Amino acid sequence: MASKSSTKITSLLVLICFATFSLATEACHPTDKAALLDFKSQINQDPTKLLQTWNASTDCCVQWEGVACGSTGRVVNLTRPGLFSTDDSIFDTFMNGTISPSLGNLEFLRFLDLSNLKQLVGTIPSTLGKLTHLTDFFLDTNQLIGPIPASFEKLTKLRRMYLSDNRLSGSVPASMLQHMSSLSELGLFNNQLSGGIPSTIRNLVSLTKIDIHGNQFSGSIPSTIGSLKKLNYVDLSANKITGNIPQSIGQLSQLNLLYLFQNSLSGSIPSSFSGLSALKFCGLEDNKLTGGLPSSIGKMSLQRLVLDNNQLTGELPVSIGNLTNLDTLSLKNNGFTGKIPSSFSNLNVLTLDLSHNKLTGKIPAFKTAFPASSFEGNSGLCGSPLPPCKTA
Length: 392
Known about the structure:
One of its GO terms (cellular component) is plasma membrane. InterPro entries: Leu-rich_rpt (IPR001611), LRR_dom_sf (IPR032675), LRR_N_plant-typ (IPR013210), PGIP (IPR051848). One of its GO terms (biological process) is detection of stimulus. By secondary structure, the protein is mainly beta. Helix content is about 10%, strand content about 25%. It is built from 3 helices and 29 strands. It starts with a helix and ends in a 10-residue tail after the last strand.
């Protein structure tokens, strides 16, 4: 038989659990419910009924799918993406409509994901700048147009923001980047954004990933990029960026991926590149780079190096033979001269293209057999897989 003291303890625990449950399930705040219902009213098509449970007669904190509330009944999470998975399936759907400005009234919202809905149209409401508690913000893979609202400068707690794969235009508000010191991931790729990369990018001291490829950004890469010590992923490719690759880029010792291809970059590859000790994937093709490859390149950890279609000259550094982790080396359509160093026989590359340069001499014995096309356009080369070298 249980003692009186144990019975009291049990009763107390029941009361505590009941109180906790009551707090956790407090009714949805009227302001938040109205904002969400207004969002639903702006959706014209919802074929898989992502918003079916959103009814005025039910509690949005308890019964609405994709909505979560804090202990006070304020909505903190809104998650209705078009691509999502369960334990055993992946679902791909869409919604057609616009983003209601009323979502800006969800003042306690921390997580917003309306990505991959494919057919969200119209502009991004400036009222979303009122979501000052927001930490994660995903509107990617839709058909949104217009500028990034200047009001986003108030989103100072953001850690991740993806607006990619839309039709956004205009420049990135410099004031927005100035106040986002907590931002770790920024995805703006595949839009129609233009103008320069704001110098205020230097304030993104927590940034680990920036991907703005496939836009119309112009001007130069800010020299202050070297101060963003946490960067491990930089993709500025397929834009209209000009000028030199800044020397400061060599300060990014944690950088794993650097894609600058399909721009109009000029000047030489900085000698500071050897400071990119963690770099594995480097794509600088389709630019106007000149000069030679720094000999220090052999000190890196590269797996993929593509420098095609530039104006690079000089001899290939012997140190490239030290890149034993390299699986892709492509240097075609440049002006490299001299012999292919015998150290290249140390490489384990699976893809090699040295075509259309000014290389001479005998091709070293690579560990992998490559087609003749890998060396064509070098009139001074001979040996397998090209015709044998002439003996004296």
